[in-house]
Amino acid sequence: MKEKNKKEDDLMEKIVSLCKRRGFVFQGSEIYGGFAGTYDWGHLGLALKNNLKQNWWKKFVDNRRDMYGIDAAILMNAKVWEATGHVANFADPLDGKQFNTMLKTEVGAKKEEVAISYLRPETAQGMFVNFKNTVDVFHPKLPFGMAQIGKAFRNEIAPRDFLFRQREFEQMEIEYFVRQEDWEKHFEYWKDEMLDWMQDLGFDMTKIHELEVEKKDRAHYSKRTIDFEFDYPFGRKELFGLAYRADFDLINHKLEYIDEEKGEKIIPHVIEPTFGVDRAVLALLLSVYVEDNKNGEIRSYLKFKSNIAPVICAVSPLLKNKPELVKYAENKVFRLLKAEFGRVVWDDNGNIGKRYRRQDEIGTPFCIVVDFDTLTDDTVTVRDRDTGEQERVKVTDLKKYIQEKI
Ligand code: GAP
């Protein structure tokens, strides 16, 4: 048991250190000693996070006919949070008294005009308060959904475990409006959709477990919740959630829906699939981190699927002081691939072995090297991250070769 715990602690340390060393995630306000519960995203972490969010948006918004996006303000009228019960109930126990975890702020310059506001603790309310706008503009038929990706803030009593529990984080949420009698059917459907997305992105599905949350542990607005838990090194804990919010929010905001065909007024019920971006990144890193032994040397790499890898391929001239190699690599390979795939980097730092290690560590699926043979036969070496195997590929076939692999 002790040995297992040590291994898990080590893994977490390795991930945190890799994130810093390779420019994925830095501690927030680091040069001033940090600021608890905040992290800053470096170039590669940002690329990973953007790919993840774009992938989510494509599946749940762009590829559907029944979903409407919104990007609501983070600062909202305090009445929103009074109506939803967050002011009264959004609290964690602290020293026997309840501590409200919403981050309060003051808005306005003149004393008499200053209003209390809260940095939103969930993106969900940005959708509910725009329910009427969306219905009035798009006239959607039930069932339909609203989707939002954005920051959320919670004054967590004890932020910890790297990206797991922060005070500022990001959510990707859907509020799906259904007829009351259909809620169970849609709940099951969304459970499968969430699992599908996790599978498609490359989460280690053996580490994901469903937990039926007991009434006493559910949020105040939920009539049923399933947590998708993940086996993190620090324990099995919540990754994402799926809640049946029933008509709680629409009733509290005094909102309703008119079925134009039937001419009836109803209050739709809500199924809410919710995804934390930061926890998704952490669980993904833990899912794809691999160590193997290559010719007696331990190497670590991130086995990202190419749909989310921050970099798809790195292009290198074998030697950076040979202008003919550099010119060929730049003009005939790098530019071609950059225009096609975007996520392509130039890497001529150190020897080839070092470049491979560096690209392995950030999870780049392919390294392409221009060498002296290239100058005579127009072929390049393509090295596969996972197997370490190398193939000669004609430059004219390179785009197709990579497209097929990804
Ligand atoms: N609108 C529903 C809602 O906000 P939640 O379970 O409180 O539900 C949703 O939060 C998701 O947001 C969680 O499943 C988790 O992925 C993420 N999350 C919540 N608190 C977080 C925190 N302090 N740090 C990082 N992510 C967090």
TrEMBL record:
Cellular component per GO?
cytoplasm
Q: Name one Pfam family in it.
A: tRNA-synt_2b
Q: Which GO terms describe its biological process?
A: glycyl-tRNA aminoacylation
Task: Give the Gene Ontology MF terms in alphabetical order.
Answer: ATP binding; glycine-tRNA ligase activity
What protein is this chain from? Glycine--tRNA ligase
- The organism named in the record is Candidatus Nomurabacteria bacterium RIFCSPLOWO2_01_FULL_36_16
Classification via InterPro entries: aa-tRNA-synt_IIb (IPR002314), aa-tRNA-synth_II (IPR006195), aa-tRNA-synth_II/BPL/LPL (IPR045864), Anticodon-bd (IPR004154), Anticodon-bd_dom_sf (IPR036621), Gly-tRNA_synthase/POLG2 (IPR027031), GlyRS-like_core (IPR033731)
Query: Looking at the record's lineage, which domain of life comes first?
Result: Bacteria
Q: Which residues form the Aminoacyl-transfer RNA synthetases class-II family profile domain?
A: 10-310
Upper classification of the organism? Bacteria, Candidatus Nomuraibacteriota
Q: Which UniProt keywords apply?
A: Aminoacyl-tRNA synthetase, ATP-binding, Ligase, Nucleotide-binding, Protein biosynthesis
